[in-house]
Write a structure and sequence with these properties.
The complex is a heterodimer of chains A (314) and B (431).
Chain A lengths: L8 H8 L1 H35 L30 H32 L6 H8 L1 H4 L2 H11 L6 H8 L16 H27 L2 H10 L3 H29 L3 H7 L8 H11 L3 H34 L1
Chain B lengths: L2 H25 L5 E5 L6 H16 L2 E5 L5 H13 L7 E5 L3 H4 L7 H4 L8 H6 L1 E2 L2 E2 L2 E7 L1 E5 H6 L8 H17 L6 E4 L6 H13 L17 H11 L15 H9 L3 E6 L2 H6 L10 E4 L14 E8 L6 H11 L2 H11 L12 H6 L3 H9 L6 H4 L3 H16 L5 H15 L7
Parallel strand pairs in B: 1-2, 1-3, 8-9
Antiparallel strand pairs in B: 3-11, 4-5, 6-11, 7-9, 7-10
Helix pairs in contact in B: 9-10, 9-18, 18-19
Classes of the chains: A mainly alpha (314), B alpha/beta (431).
C-alpha cells in the first residue's frame, strides 16, 4: 500500500494484524457459495470440454476414450486443417460484421427518432420491444414461413409489386441464405440496440444543446460534436454485447437453414460434430476454439472500452 | 372459504393422491409401464399407437407413447443424447435402417427374445440390424425407392414405362412440352428429392448404383466413389434440373415432391412406397391415374437399383423392463400386425411370406413386384462405415448437391468427395 503513511498508525497496526485477516477470511466465506456455483456451472463444464478436446471420445461410447494430445487441433485430421471449420469461422465473422453494423446504424436512427419528446414515445418504446421479446426460435420459424419460396408472404408481395419475376428461394439459395439470416437478426436485435442507445441519449445534459442553439451550431455539427462523443461509451457497450452475442449465434441459423454449409456458424458446426457425427473429442476441440476466440475478443473489447472511457473522462 | 378448511381439503387431496400412488405401485409389481417412441410422420403415429395399445390390452401392461421430432436427424440426435446419458426414459425406440451401426452399443440383443422369429424377415434387413454379432433391432417395415408415373399421361402420349434414365428423360420432355402447350404451364417431367439431406444420399446412390458406379464405400472399406460411371450418373441428374425438374427440386424432400406430383403437376416421381396410399386416397387429384415401377437402369448395361430404407424397433439397453419391452417389439413386428399395416397403410412388410398374401396384393397391387426390388435393393454403406456413416452421407449429399446446383462438375465434386472420405475414414481404415 502506497498510502499507508497517511493513515493513523494504530489503524495500520490493526489492519496488518488479526482484524484484516479476519475480514479477508469472512469475505471468502461470503463469496464461497457463489464461487462454488460458478465453478459447478462454468469452470467444470469448460474444463471438461477442454479435456475431451484432447481425447478421441465418441458419443456412441462415451466411457471409452484415449488421450491423443493435440491431434484434434493440428495435424492432417485436425480442426485447423478442416476447410469446413474455416468456412464456419468465415460465416460467423461475416454474419457478425454485417448484423452488428446494420443493427447499430438502424438502432441509432430509431433511438434519435424516439428521443424527440412526444406523447407517442412511451407507446412506441413498448411496441419497439416486441421483436426482442419473441423467443428466437419462434421468430426464426415465423420468418422461415414468411420467406418460404412456394407460399411465403414475402415472395407473394414482391411478385405482386413486380420487384421480382420468379419466387426467390430465400433460405435455400446459397447466394441469399446468409443475407436472409442477417435480415432476421437485424429485425430482432435492432430494438435492443435502439433502447440501449436511447438510454445513452437521455443521459446527455440538456444545457450542451442549449449552448449550441444559442451559438447557432448546425444540427449535423451538434450531432457530430456533442451527441456522438457523449453517447459513445454507451454505444460501444451495446456494440460489444451484440458482437459477443452474434459470435455464438446458433438458434436462428439452425432453425432457418439447419446444417447447410453455406450458412453454418461455429456453434452450428460444434453441434453437428458433437451430436450428428458423435465426435465428442473433435467437437469439443471446436467448442474450445470458439470459447477462446470469444474470450480473446472480449478482452480486446474491454481494453478498448477502458481507453475510450478514460479519454471521455479526461 | 376459510383457510383452515381449504388446508384440510388440500391435505385430503394429497392423502388421496398418495393412496392412489400406492395402489398404482402395488399394481406395478406384475404389470409395468413401457414407453415407446413412435415417429409421427403421416399415418405412422396412428398405426404405432394402435398396435401398441392392442398389446397393452392383451398383456395388461401400461403404455406411454413418446412422440419424438418428425425430422429423422433430430430424432437421431435426441436418441443419441438420451442413450449416451443411459436414460431409462424410453424403452422401445423406432430406428431407421441406417442407425443400427450408430446406436448398436446402446441397444439390447433381441436374439434371445426372438426365439427364431427373425428368420421370417428379409435376410438383408436382419444383416443390416446386426451389429457386432448382436441383433439390435427387429425389422418393422421396409422401404425402397420407386418410380411413380402418371399412367394416363403415358398412354395419351404413347409412351411406355421407361426402362432407362435416357428413356425417362425423353418421355418426360415430350409429355411436359405437350401438357404445357395444352395449357398446364406448371407441368414438370420428373420430381425427386434434391435437398441437401439424407434423402438426396438415397437418390444419388440409386443413380450411381444403376450406372454400376459402386456403393460409395465398398464392403472392404475401399472408397470407390471417384469413378467415371458415378460421374456420368451425377451429370445425367444435373441435366434434369431446370429442364424436366423444377430448380426448386434442389430444396425438395419427400413431401414437397409428393405435393407437386399429387397436385397433378408432374409426370414422374421418385418416392417411397408410402406415397401410393396417399396418391390413391379419396380426394387425390390423380386417383386411379398412377402407376408404380422399379427405378430405371443407367443405360442399357446398367441395372435397376433402389435404395433400401425402412424402420425397425429396438429396445434400449438401459430399459428397466427389457423382457416386457422385447415382447412389445416382437408383437409389433409380428406377421399379423405387419399385415394389418400393409392393408390399411400400405406399409411394406419385412416378412417375405406376406408378399404372397392375396389380401395384401389386392390392396396394394404393386407389392408383388416389390419383392424383387427388395431382394435387389442397394443398402447404404452403413455397416462398413459404422459410427462414421453420418459423416460419409453428409459429404456425399453435399457433393451431389454441388453438382446438381452447378457449383461444380461431377468430376470435381467426386474428386473432392474422395479426399473428404479419405479424411473421415483415416485413409480407408475406418478405424
Amino acid at each position: 500500500m502506497a498510502d499507508d503513511s497517511l493513515r493513523p498508525p494504530f489503524q495500520n497496526a490493526l489492519l496488518r494484524g488479526g482484524l484484516a485477516a479476519q475480514r479477508v477470511r469472512r469475505a471468502w466465506w461470503m463469496a464461497a457459495p457463489m464461487l462454488l456455483v460458478l465453478a459447478a456451472v462454468g469452470a467444470w463444464p469448460l474444463l471438461r470440454t477442454i479435456w475431451f478436446s484432447l481425447t478421441d471420445s465418441e458419443l456412441s461410447n462415451l466411457g471409452d476414450y484415449a488421450f491423443i494430445g493435440l491431434e484434434n487441433y493440428v495435424g492432417e485430421y485436425g480442426l485447423l486443417a478442416s476447410a469446413e471449420w474455416w468456412q464456419a469461422v468465415g460465416n460467423t465473422l461475416l454474419f457478425t460484421g454485417l448484423s452488428v453494423t446494420l443493427e447499430t446504424l438502424l438502432g441509432l436512427a430509431v433511438a434519435l427518432l424516439l428521443n424527440q419528446a412526444s406523447r407517442l414515445r412511451t407507446l412506441l418504446r413498448a411496441a419497439l420491444l416486441v421483436p426482442w421479446a419473441i423467443p428466437t426460435v419462434v421468430s426464426a420459424k415465423m420468418w422461415s414461413w414468411m420467406l418460404h419460396d412456394q407460399f411465403g408472404i414475402v415472395n407473394h408481395h414482391l411478385l405482386a409489386l413486380g420487384l421480382i419475376a420468379a419466387p426467390l428461394a430465400w433460405t435455400a439459395d446459397p447466394q441469399l441464405s446468409l443475407f436472409s439470416i442477417v435480415l432476421v437478426d437485424v429485425w430482432k436485435a435492432t430494438p435492443y440496440m435502439a433502447l440501449l442507445i436511447l438510454a445513452a441519449l437521455q443521459m446527455v445534459p440538456e444545457d450542451c444543446y442549449e449552448a449550441a442553439r444559442v451559438d447557432g451550431v448546425p444540427r449535423w455539427q451538434v450531432f457530430r460534436r456533442i451527441t456522438l462523443p457523449l453517447i459513445l461509451p454507451g454505444l460501444l457497450v451495446a456494440m460489444v454485447f451484440r458482437t459477443l452475442d452474434a459470435l455464438r449465434v446458433f438458434d436462428l441459423i439452425y432453425v432457418m437453414t439447419s446444417n447447410s454449409r453455406d450458412t453454418q456458424s461455429m456453434s452450428v458446426f460444434v453441434r453437428e460434430q458433437l451430436i450428428d457425427f458423435g465426435l465428442v473429442g473433435y467437437g469439443s476441440a471446436a467448442a474450445t476454439c470458439l470459447f477462446f476466440m470469444i474470450a480473446l475478443l472480449s478482452i480486446i473489447a474491454m481494453g478498448l472500452m477502458r481507453r475510450t472511457f478514460e479519454r471521455a473522462a479526461a | 372459504m376459510p383457510l383452515a378448511t381449504r388446508r384440510t381439503l388440500l391435505a385430503m387431496l394429497f392423502t388421496g393422491l398418495a393412496l392412489l400412488g400406492l395402489v398404482a405401485n402395488t399394481r406395478a409389481a406384475d404389470t409395468v409401464t413401457i414407453s415407446i417412441a413412435c415417429s409421427g410422420v403421416g399415418q405412422e403415429l396412428e398405426f404405432c399407437t394402435g398396435a401398441a395399445e392392442a398389446w397393452a390390452r392383451k398383456t395388461g401392461h401400461a403404455l406411454k407413447i413418446v412422440t419424438p421430432p418428425n425430422d429423422a436427424s433430430e430424432r437421431l440426435a435426441l436418441y443419441q443424447q438420451l442413450l449416451s446419458a443411459r436414460s431409462e426414459k424410453i424403452d422401445v425406440l423406432q430406428v431407421d435402417v441406417i442407425w443400427p451401426g450408430l446406436l448398436g452399443s446402446h441397444l439390447l440383443d433381441l436374439r434371445p427374445y426372438a426365439k427364431g422369429a427373425e428368420a421370417q424377415h428379409f435376410p438383408g434387413f436382419i444383416a443390416n440390424n446386426t451389429s457386432h454379432g448382436r441383433l439390435v433391432a427387429m425389422p418393422w417395415f421396409a422401404n425402397a425407392g420407386l418410380l411413380f408415373y402418371r399412367s394416363d399421361l403415358l398412354q395419351r402420349y404413347g409412351q411406355s414405362v421407361p426402362a432407362t434414365w435416357e428413356e425417362l428423360t425423353a418421355s418426360a420432355r415430350v409429355i411436359q412440352e405437350g401438357e404445357r402447350v395444352a395449357g398446364n404451364e406448371r407441368m414438370w417431367g420428373y420430381v425427386w428429392q434434391g435437398r441437401a439431406y439424407e434423402g438426396l444420399s438415397c437418390n444419388a446412390l440409386e443413380w450411381v448404383a444403376s450406372h454400376d458406379g459402386g456403393d460409395i464405400v465398398e464392403a472392404d472399406g475401399r472408397i470407390s466413389i471417384d469413378n467415371p460411371r458415378a460421374a456420368l450418373a451425377l451429370t445425367t441428374a444435373a441435366a434434369w434440373v431446370g429442364r424436366i425438374s423444377p430448380t426448386a427440386v434442389l430444396n425438395y424432400a419427400e413431401e414437397e415432391s409428393r405435393g407437386v406430383f399429387q397436385a397433378g403437376n408432374a409426370v414422374f416421381m421418385r418416392n417411397w412406397p408410402y406415397a401410393w396410399a396417399l396418391a390413391q386416397a379419396e380426394g387425390s387429384a390423380i386417383r386411379g391415374k398412377v402407376g408404380v415401377a422399379v427405378l430405371p437402369k443407367g443405360g442399357g448395361a446398367g441395372r435397376h437399383a433402389a435404395a433400401l430404407g425402412g424402420e425397425s424397433l429396438a429396445v434400449s439397453k438401459y430399459s428397466r423392463h427389457p423382457a416386457a419391452a422385447a415382447d412389445l417389439v416382437l408383437y409389433m413386428t409380428s406377421a399379423a400386425v405387419q399385415k394389418d399395416r400393409a392393408l390399411r397403410g400400405s406399409f411394406n412388410p419385412t416378412i417375405a411370406a406376406l408378399y404372397q398374401d392375396a389380401e395384401i396384393l389386392q390392396a396394394n397391387p404393386f407389392m408383388g413386384e416389390l419383392l424383387a426390388t427388395f431382394t435387389n435393393a442397394v443398402a447404404r454403406p452403413t455397416s462398413v462405415t459404422g459410427a462414421r456413416y453420418n459423416q460419409v452421407s453428409h459429404h456425399f449429399w453435399n457433393a451431389a448437391h454441388d453438382t446438381l446446383s452447378g457449383k461444380a462438375t461431377a468430376e470435381q465434386a467426386l474428386a473432392r468427395l474422395e479426399q473428404s472420405l479419405k479424411r473421415v475414414s483415416r485413409r480407408g481404415t475406418w478405424r
